[in-house]
Model the fold of this input.
Amino acid sequence: MKIYSLVGKSGAGKSFQAITLANENGIEAIIDDGLFIYKGRIAAGISAKRRETKTRAIKTALFLDDDICREVRRVIKKEKPQSILIIGTSDKMVFRIADRLKLPQPAVRVDINDITTEAEREQAYKKRYELGGHIIPAPTVQIKKDFSGYFVHPLKSLRDFSEDVWKGIDPFTERDIRRPFAERTVVRPTYSYLGAFSVSDHAIKDIVRITAAGFPEVASVEHAFVRVRTEGVIIEAALIMNYGFAAPEAARRLQAGIAERIDEMTSMNILAIDIEIKGLLWLN
Done:
């Protein structure tokens, strides 16, 4: 197993550049902020960016929780990656992570200053310290439940490569076209120094009602309930539909519309949207 390290100070853009570095060097896995990411998917670990305090985030990133550390070791042993990139703010941090996970010490060291320009690093600092954005080199769909209600935004690099492409060779050029990492996600950590925020149930209910008002098939929203879970929300809405429309089809389109609006406006992870049609309104 060959270990690479990517080192640089916090906010310099390491997690963003990690995907390019991994793809260019055929690196199969990335260890970043408490996560073991294998072939572009989170395989084990917990994101340090989801911890409530900076202190707990640091402990998570260093795999100091014995249960989590054992689980990550188990998955690494199971998957048997030939190469892993460990991201850290210093060589000492990288060595400590490798030691905790019982991995070899890095054979190749990459400094973020050697693979980025000063302008790129300044842009990364701005996004981190002015906008509160942190990158996780993994698909949004995998981490959204852990960051429900927080700023979550996907960044895709050209295209999302399938598992088949991971194994493939371009038949025309005979070049290796493997790209295990294709998507990055921007999150706003729980411990963000920009302050905490929450989304009220009333706001979600208003989004449901306003969205429904745009459907001619819907006469009124009788009531809307929101059940909040740690990993997201469940929304229940009871409707009166106008007679003469295909109610089931309209309800399905309304479900999709509500999910899109709530995702767009609140970043809440939608677990379910249950629509009940309580009656029909006859129009004169």
Residues 148-152, 155-178, 191-197 have pLDDT under 50 and may be disordered. Residues 2-187 form one domain. Residues 247-266 form the longest helix (20 residues).
